[in-house]
Amino acid sequence: MQTQTNAKSGSRLFYLDNIRIYLTILVILQHAAISYGGTGDWAVKDPAVDELSPIFLTFFNAVNQSYFMSAFFLLAGYFTPRSFEGKGAGSFLKDRLIRLGIPIIIYSTLIFNLNQVLIEVWMRKQPFQWILAYQAGHLWFLLALLLFAVIYVIYRAVVDRNKTKQYFQYYSDRFPPNRALILSIVFLIVLTFIVRIRFSVGEWTYPGFQLAHSVHYAFSFFVGILAYRGDWLNRLDRDQARRWGIVALIMMPLFFVVAILGGALEGGAAFERFLGGLHWQSLGYTTWESILLIAILTFLLYFFREHVNRTSPLLRSMAASVYTVYIIHQTVLFVFNILFLRVDVPTIVKFPIVSLIAVPLCFGLAVLIRRIPYAKSVLG
């Protein structure tokens, strides 16, 4: 095994690669959980045969949703300034268009229709009709990154006109103190709650975004840029990370307290109040989610930096494949979701079985796909 700790050199940051691996596995587990009773949108639903599985899987997904996609945005923001400065505005945007735009086109034309064959023909025994139209699907994330890249280029074009290049930056000599993190949580709670009065969790808007989560995502991308400028990831200390880890552990079970007090177990309209609108349940869920975002990310970054900052042939292969896995995992899960519709085992057993099959298979297929000529120029 090799270890590397230099945060702002041009070399690989092994612990950030390993966070990406971890987050990508969570994406697969998140979607698998939805198919077996967790809340969320997924084309293949296998209704739970017990009462506990939906509760456990909904809790699992709620904790993941509080931070895992935001973590992806933070990492994307962290590497944006270095990529921009190494390539220049034109090459940077061209690279973003190739790496983010081409997968969206392939998904809209090929992968989406392959998924339709699986669902309509194989599962529902219905005729298949080829659809040629824009389909973002789970690749909404790539579209959001492309939008943020354009915004960053415009921002740099304005700022770089000033010869002194005074970039917007807080805490250039240390990780933000706890008071700054608490103020960030308050900001996230207030703004997210306001957005969710109009756009509820689970409500998709063109061109494929859930605006209910947009505040967390934009905030995380922006924080990633600040983290790079201030070298925050190297300056986060053990005591601060430990405190926020404790906060995360305290907050997680409070999910059940808020859910029970708010009537989530009743379902229907009572459950909908947690997802948005001018309701205390929405404010409670938004508060829980925003605290977990800051708490988990702070602890996660420190933990991986100190304990998982290494590589190996397997980890290098997985790190190189995470982007491809993100693109193809939906189709792989659909296959096994449909296959296991006919398997008579408890729901709580199906979820780990399908997950244990899908995760290594996705990474294995990604290795093969990246060997296709010219694939690496898009997939990395």
Description:
It is a single chain. The chain has helices at 14-35, 52-123, 140-159, 178-198, 214-230, 232-235, 238-261, 268-275, 280-307, 313-339, 347-369, 376-379; strands spanning 2-3, 310-311. The relative contact order is 0.16. It is mainly alpha-helical and 380 residues long. It is built from twelve helices and two strands; from the N terminus they run E-H-H-H-H-H-H-H-H-H-E-H-H-H. A two-stranded antiparallel ribbon has the order 1-2. Residues 1-7 have low confidence and may be disordered. It is 71% helix and 1% strand.
Strand adjacency order, main sheet: 1-2
- Our count of domains comes out at 1
Radius of gyration: 21 Å
Q: Give the distance, in angstroms, between the N- and C-terminal Cα atoms.
A: 23 Å
β-strand percent reads: under 5%
Backbone shape = globular
Rounded mean pLDDT score: 93
H and E string: EHHHHHHHHHEHHH
Number of strands: 2
- List low-pLDDT spans: 1-7
Into which percent range does the helicity of residues fall? over 70%
Question: Helix tally?
Answer: 12
Largest sheet: 2 strands, antiparallel
Q: SS-based structural class?
A: mainly alpha
